[in-house]
Amino acid sequence: MKMRWMLTAVLAPMLLLAGCANDPTRGKERALRDTLRSYASTLRWGDIAQAQIFLDPAYLEQHPIPETDLARYRQVQVSQYSEHPAVPVGDTEVHQTVEIGLINVHTQAMRTIVDRQVWRYDAKQKRWWLMSGLPDITRRD
Prior knowledge:
Elements: H1 2-21, H2 24-45, H3 57-62, H4 67-74, E1 76-83, E2 87-88, E3 93-104, E4 110-122, E5 127-130
């Protein structure tokens, strides 16, 4: 009896996880959640320019980031990152609006920008790509 209970305790979670792994929608949702969390962390704790890894390679090829923009990113520190819920737009696209607080590292001046993000799911690579570019820190909202 004890052996049967142990087998049930070990096998039940494995079977449950296996069922979840076969659900492509759940995998896509998990990938989105993880991507948005990782992107937010990169902006909050890293450098905005480091977030280039989230950009769709085709987008980045068509819209290379000028060195002047990269220099501007080095002049600010993110002090706030407040996400609104992601809004699905079809099966492979999600929009998210984020308020980003910035501090100029030279003047200590603070301001807030609004970043309207567009994310697209790549089924082949099973990942989400940022299609709207890095935040425009020069825009005044």
